[in-house]
Automatic annotation (TrEMBL):
Pfam families: 2OG-FeII_Oxy_2. This is Alkylated DNA repair dioxygenase AlkB. InterPro entries: AlkB-like, AlkB-like_sf, ALKBH3, Oxoglu/Fe-dep_dioxygenase_dom. Its cofactor is Fe(2+). The lineage of its organism: Bacteria, Pseudomonadati, Bacteroidota, Cytophagia, Cytophagales.
Length: 201
């Protein structure tokens, strides 16, 4: 996403070295309710292992990958092959195109069953996404806290509650200089679906 277009639409939540924008009402409540239901039913959710410190461990969440023909995505020693677009995901991709002008090629889905499911600190900096990737993250279901901090100094921590129907955009140099996570929480929470749309270069 071009920086000038980004700045026209969003307030930049980062103080320097990248752009992160938040759009609370990307999907209206009823639309978001419907997408949650359709995706919960239609996606073949799986708990996949990853390699961490030389050990195979189960990820603390369920995942799936959808995308254009031939798309694969590798991280932490596993490779996922994209499934063909299904109607609800094709529809959200189209709405994102209208909003950001980006032609996303695939989407990684995460299903957090409850507050014990999580995602640790990381950057989405795979070289296949190009130098300064634009990542569009749509949230459905329970609100979870998204945290960002500076990668080198581990300072400047920012908390963004990602609520039902919201959109978070990460762009510019953000994946070089900032890392993000979804921490576990002791709160009694229902499930949450997160969709991160990405573009292969
Ligand atoms: O669940 C989220 O909001 C974050 C997901 C994420 O960072 C990712 O899939 O790379
Ligand atoms: Fe991420």
């Amino acid at each position: 996403m071009q920086q000038d277009l980004f700045l026209l639409k969003y307030r930049n939540l980062l103080p320097y070295q990248g752009e992160v924008g938040f759009y609370d009402g990307f999907l209206a409540q009823e639309v978001a309710d419907l997408f949650f239901k359709l995706l919960e039913d239609q996606v073949p959710w799986k708990q996949e292992p990853i390699w961490m410190f030389g050990k195979k461990v189960m990820q603390p969440r369920l995942t799936a990958l959808f995308g254009d023909p031939g798309v694969t995505y590798s991280y932490s020693g596993i490779e996922m092959k994209a499934l063909d677009w299904i109607e609800p995901l094709a529809e959200i991709r189209q709405r994102l195109k209208a909003h950001t002008s980006v032609d996303f090629t695939h989407v990684l889905l995460n299903y957090y069953r409850d507050g014990k499911d999580s995602m640790g600190w990381h950057r989405d900096n795979e070289s296949s996404l190009g130098k300064n990737p634009c990542i569009a993250s749509v949230s459905l279901g329970a609100t979870r806290n998204f945290q960002i901090r500076h990668y080198e100094s581990k300072s400047n921590k920012i908390d963004i509650p990602l609520n039902h129907g919201s959109l978070l955009i990460m762009a510019g140099e953000s994946q070089h200089f900032w890392e993000h996570q979804i921490p576990k929480t002791k709160k009694e929470l229902g499930p949450r679906i997160n969709l991160t749309f990405r573009k292969l270069i």
